[in-house]
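Here's what a typical entry looks like (Gnk2-homologous domain):
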Amino acid sequence: MFLKFSRLFSLPFLFICTLTFHSLTIKASPTYLYHDCQNTNTATFSSNSSYKTNLNILLSSLESNSATVTNGFYDYKVGNQASNTVYGLFLCRGDVSSDTCKTCVTAARSDLNQNCSSAKVAITFYDLCLLRYSNEPVVSTPAFSPIYIVSNTSNITIERDKFIKLVGETMNRIKGEAARGTDKKFATKEAKFTDSDTLYTLAQCTPDLSTDDCNSCLLTCINALDNGRQGATTMLTSCNVRFEIYPFYNSTATIAPAPAPVALSPPTASTNTSAPPPTLESKAGDKGISTITLVAIVIPVAISATFLTILCFCFLTKRKENTAVAAFLTILCYCFFRNKKEYTAVLEDNSAVDGITNVQSLHYDLRTIETATNNFSIENKIGKGGFGDVYKGTLSNGQEVAVKRLSKASGQGEEQFKNEVLLVAKLQHRNLVRLLGFCLERKEKILIYEYVPNKSLDHILFGLALLKHVGYISPEYAMHGHFSVKSDVYSFGVLILEIISGHKNSHFQQSDRAEDLLSYAWKLWKKDVPLELVDETIRDSYPRNEVRRCIQIGLLCVQEDPDKRPTMASVVLMLNSFSVTLALPKKPAFFAPTRTRTELSFPIMGLESDKSTSKSMTISVNDVSITELHPR
């Protein structure tokens, strides 16, 4: 009897083990589809070229940002000359989590490194993302090649004409919805085909495209589809479409409502006042069980219980017919589970990371800011800087804030503005004024900081000397009023050299020749003894190669030519990765072997008001500018 039971039990048991294994290991992972490299004589580069160096920086930036962007899209460029500038972007499918997006972009980067190692122009397609780079700009212009088309091998055999018509109508509707999108040009739609069959469709464009360009791109994709198959996909460089007769996307993520309006009280890092991000996870404290976990547990247990019941019944009745029934039901359930596998795979855990991970949690509405600052009244104005005016404000809960109203002439894009806000908001230090949030409405770009009373803002951040000196101000801005993103890079470079040397640039005096800090650092670099710059109190307690690298980065940031200075994104990569090769720095700005002192008269901006007074001071050529209240 035992042997008979064993034979009866063996086949279902194997199926149960298989089902359990599958259900525990199902996970949404990117699938490689296709890549294209332009390996022509004019579209290749050598392994030791500056283009290769810039490409590595670009790909590293794209990969690192893939885990933080909120709309699954990011573009970037590296280079200061036409011959070595590289442009790139990635686009992740609109329903995947940030973790899945990063996994896909990482895989795509590896694929391009392996298959397009010397191509100046390349793209790779995965089912969940695409990654591309080029020696020409890649944003805001639709690209229609290369094209990737794949169709299901099975044809529609029932009411074929009706199905083809349904696909065409549904795709045309979803095309318009995706094109009208703002943050994500992504849409999904379902349509009933028969009582038991549903059509699932998806359309997506890169968010940089205009509505018309997205419509045009998607129309090209739709026209290339084989509507008579049970499923098909068309992918262009700037857009893609897909339809299937089974769920292949996370419908919960695609229909998530917009975040709720922010309340009048200020948001903080620990209190997210916007609607929570879409998630399939139910949390109780820190012990949450996601849907994918439930699927992994419940399905094997339920199926196991079903089969054990059948087996017991067969054993007790000793009827051979029931053995066949058990085997049949086993196979039937396995087939059913297999058909649902892809749908289960997209049920991801989208729970947010603790802290600030969503830029919307930092958003203030413009009306709140106008009320807090008395509609940006002159009485509330406490300073003016190169970026715009600064106002003191009081929120509805009584909290005082410093509101910086950025100049409308700024060329910074909205997405870049949001990304920088999210990055700065995560920085917490007792010597840094905390960023509370931002406002981006009606062409206004506004930053909201904590208000530091009793003049401590300037004392903590810079010291009173900075109110009269320009050690941190880029020379092109101080002398000509030219400001760009590279102006901040200059300031950051000065800070690096100050931290390493233990001296302020504005108060540095190494010898009778009164060299400034930048000139002194440059001389030591040229003599190949840069470590002599290091503060004596820490000279024997640091990794020499790391400090030398930091000095080199600082000198790169303060180069005289703004175009030769790296971007802040590149600086972050340089500081975080030793695999990034650093360029040799050029002469710093205001490099003066024999500096003379000059009497200059210029206005000093006070902290309490925007009224200026003319004062005469004995200063160096590197000390000619105005520093106003500039909270950060």
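The first helix runs from residue 2 to 25.

More examples are in the samples folder.
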